[in-house]
């Protein structure tokens, strides 16, 4: 999943991603029996591989690849950096033209589509890659087959101004839905906030805002055969989400590209839900000492507990690779806990391997440690090839719910009908 830019961040307000219930992806995806790839030969890697990676990761990966080359003197890794907004089309064109790289960073929500196109090589059974957060591991799986590794992860937490919360009469973060709304209201009435919490008012990506609430109620997005949007659990979450807008606690006219950082720093919007990248963003705007004026907390619990969206990116090897063994050894290298910790130091991308969180840089940071706790229960969307198409319908209906007060039950019925019409793509 693409990491949003600071200016385009979605303000979410709920429990959540990612990447699946108890961490596993909610569907098996493309059909067929689970597979494992042919074993990779032992010994050092050699040969030249081409690797694609997106955004800032693509720019920084050559420095990490140099470490792999030092450990494998016969190997060479050529990294091509690709802009995020061009990546999906570049991949699909390359699949059609049979001009893919050997390995690549891939958005988690693309895995079902690419596996369905028979482009991905199943993970070899003899590679030593384990210890991932369960939800992150689930993003690599389609129909029970793993097609790579979760390279880095992100999840969403509740950001809140501790100083303003104290003015509002709260000395700790809310842990329940009721507590979240109570605190958001008090931020307005007692701490002078314009809006108690920043939430996305529908539109592209708003499903990531609502699903944490739904997962917290025990919702599933699939029953293994098709999509399941029209359920009591989903309805409970959407009605709760709508109430923030109906009651004036969240801004139903919030722009598609919200001004999160300045509004948070000024206190106009003292709570929002987002990922770890926002820590540096708000601290940069807030200036010296602002880090002591806010904190983060796990998504407040629904009746089924606290969950969140698990995002990030996976790393895969393509079936067309002529240097398959070296490509997979590079992927194995990326999954090493020490390498994951090194990559965090280079990029601030959070490790997908749980043991990497024991390093001083992560373990000593109180805010980051909360992200690690949330990742233990974070979930992912289904790995059906049609997910991106289907979820666009949910985004559209959520906008009607938040901005015009449309009936949540009717909205979910519409989404279900469209999902049934589109199908899973299996």
Helix content: 40-55%
Which overall shape is indicated by the principal axes computed on the Cα atoms? Answer: globular
Indicate the CATH topology of the domain at 46-155 and 310-375. D-Maltodextrin-Binding Protein, domain 2
Tally of DSSP β-strands: 11
The radius of gyration is 21 Å
Give the count of helical stretches: 16
CATH superfamily of the domain at 46-155 and 310-375: Periplasmic binding protein-like II
Assembly context of the chains: single chain
| CATH architectural category of the domain at 46-155 and 310-375 | 3-Layer(aba) Sandwich
Chain-averaged pLDDT: 90
Q: List low-confidence stretches.
A: 1-31
Largest sheet: 6 strands, mixed
Structural class: alpha+beta
Distance between the termini: 21 Å
CATH level-1 class of the domain at 46-155 and 310-375: Alpha Beta
Order of secondary-structure elements: EHEHEHHEEEEHHHHHEHEEHHEHHHH
Record the strand order, biggest sheet.
2-1-3-10-6-11
Which band does the percent of strand residues land in? 5-15%
